[in-house]
Amino acid sequence: MSKLFQELDVDTYYLEYDDQARTGGFSPLKHLPPHKNVILGVVTSKYPELEDKEELKLRVHEAAETIAEGNGSSKDESIKQIGISPQCGFSSSVEVRHMEHEDMVRKLRLVREVADDIWPGEP
Fold first, then answer.
1. Residue 52's pLDDT band (cuts 50, 70, 90)
2. CA distance 116 to 107
3. What is the pLDDT of residues 25-45, one digit of tens each?
4. Which residues are registered as beta bridge partners of 83?
5. In-domain check, residue 73
6. How far is 35 from 22, CA to CA, in rounded Å?
7. How far apart are the two ends of the chain, measured CA to CA in Å?
8. Host domain of residue 88
9. Where are the alpha helices (DSSP H) in 38-120?
10. Entry's InterPro entries (predicted)?
């Protein structure tokens, strides 16, 4: 992971973290340097049921703590390196996952609500 985060010439990583059994924990984020960002795909596009908003916020804060631990910054500094999104697009969700348009809209609204709570006043 160190090589991925520290040697690739990219500013932002988009990582799937919607299913901890499949994706594992946030420990790889210890290698994220202070000058790079990560978008956590914590909202699944695999099923229409909404995730728990408070649980999502806890997971983002856990990721910030992991980043802070790894790069020696504060949690408040590290949380500025994070964004959230669905774990991937919804393009195959309608037919394969039985996601309706309104389900997708609800998921995106949830992402916005969580972001507003964690990063108030940010665009």
1. very high
2. 14
3. 999 999 999 999 999 999 998
4. 39
5. yes
6. 28
7. 30
8. 2-118
9. 53-71, 75-78, 93-96, 101-118
10. UROD/MetE-like_sf
